[in-house]
Design the sequence.
């Protein structure tokens, strides 16, 4: 699975959009981009994932560049409860194909610590 | 659906003692993962089960560590002759492969078991 690079920390004002960047320049064609977050003393929580197209759900939006070498997670209106470590992970095959030898495991880096300030 | 539960949440032990952690995944999830997380680091993959079969083990899983999932439901992680370097949060996650169309490949994490070795 390709490696990702994220800034170690970012600040965001409450109510503003938080834009978290991720570089994955060695991503290959069948690799998905996943985002998870980990609030202090809790297990990681799935946010969103995508392959090529931009994606949006109730938590966030994911913007993937056309060359797929980088992506941005957008929290449109950050709240204090969004303070967490955000992990960008690249995983092949989505771990979803029948018969695939892919175990579906996630390889975490150190992530970006997002501090939302009042 | 009660989520992934782990027990105990906290364990303090003396060096040289054995400890066992239990993970109850989301019911009918056929995939189960163990991770270890030390302070300031992202979770590190330890091992993976599909049903009762342990299909992958990380090199981090020394021979003092053993994991089982005897009936394909709950899992245990045992650490024998604990060392101070084993102090960490041990996270369990589960997921379900139900088919490529419906499956997001999302891993659901428990809140972890924190081990302190004195």
Sequence:
């Amino acid at each position: 699975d390709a490696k990702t690079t994220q800034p170690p920390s970012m600040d965001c004002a409450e109510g503003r959009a938080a834009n978290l960047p991720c570089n994955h320049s060695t991503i290959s064609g069948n690799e998905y981009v996943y985002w998870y977050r980990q609030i202090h003393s809790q297990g990681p929580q799935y946010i969103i994932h995508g392959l090529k197209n931009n994606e949006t759900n109730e938590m966030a939006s994911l913007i993937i560049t056309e060359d797929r070498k980088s992506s941005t997670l957008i929290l449109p209106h950050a709240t204090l409860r969004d303070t967490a470590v955000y992990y960008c992970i690249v995983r092949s095959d989505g771990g979803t194909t029948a018969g695939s030898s892919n175990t579906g495991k996630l390889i975490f880096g150190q992530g970006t610590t997002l501090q939302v300030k009042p | 659906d009660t989520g992934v539960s782990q027990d105990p949440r906290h364990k303090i032990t003396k060096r040289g003692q054995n400890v066992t952690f239990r993970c109850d995944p989301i019911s009918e999830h056929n995939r189960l993962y163990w991770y270890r997380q030390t302070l300031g680091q992202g979770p590190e993959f330890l091992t993976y089960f599909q049903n009762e079969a342990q299909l992958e083990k990380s090199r981090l899983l020394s021979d003092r560590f053993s994991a089982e999932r005897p009936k394909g439901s709950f899992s245990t992680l045992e650490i024998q002759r604990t060392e101070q370097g084993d102090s960490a949060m041990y996270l369990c996650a589960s997921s379900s492969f139900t088919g490529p169309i419906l499956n997001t490949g999302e891993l659901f994490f428990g809140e972890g078991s924190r081990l302190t070795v004195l």
